[in-house]
Amino acid sequence: MGSIVQGSDGKVRCGWCSAAPEFIAYHDQEWGYPVADDQRLFEKLCLESFQSGLSWRTIYAKRDNFRAAFAGFDFNTVADYTSHDVERLLADSGIVRHRGKIEAVINNACRARELVAQEGSLARYFWSYESVTEVGLEAQSRSYSSQSKALAKDLKKRGWKFVGPTTVYAFMQAMGLINDHIPECWMHGVIDHARSSFTRP
Q: Which GO terms describe its biological process (predicted)?
C-alpha cells in the first residue's frame, strides 16, 4: 500500500506528493479527476509513454514543452507529422529526445484518429475499460490491473506503441478511471464525489 504524508496545510495526502513540491498542486488539482476530453486523454497517454524508464517529475517539468512540440497533443494534427517533424523534435532540448517514443506519438496519433472513427471518441473507448477497486487490493498496491492489461492488449492489437499494462495503469489512475488515492488522503472523497457525478461518455 502507498504511504501518506501530512502537508504544511494539515491535509493528509498520498505519500508520493513528498517527492517534489510541485506534486502537491498536481495531486490536488489533476490526479484522479475523471476526464472525458479526447485531447487530454491522448496527451496523458503520450506523456506516460515518454515517462517509461524515467521519473514523472522529469516529464511533468517538461509538460509545457511537450505541448508546444506536439501541437497541444491535437492528434489530428500530430497524425500528419512527417520525418522532418521527427528530426525537428529530436533537436528540441525542451522535451525527451527519444526517437522511438517520438515516432510512437505520431503513430499513436494516427491510431487515435482511426479509433475515433470506429468508436466515436477516445473517451468512449477508454471509459469502456473503467477500473473498479478489486476486493482485497489496497490503493497504490500494484502497478497494473486486469483492466489495464486488457486495454494495453487491445491498443497493441490496434497498432498503438509504448502502451504496456503499467503505462496504461498510470494513465487510468491519473485520468480518473479508478480512484487510487489512499483512503486516508483528503482527496479520496473528493475524487469519489467527482466520479459519482461524472457522466460517462
A: base-excision repair
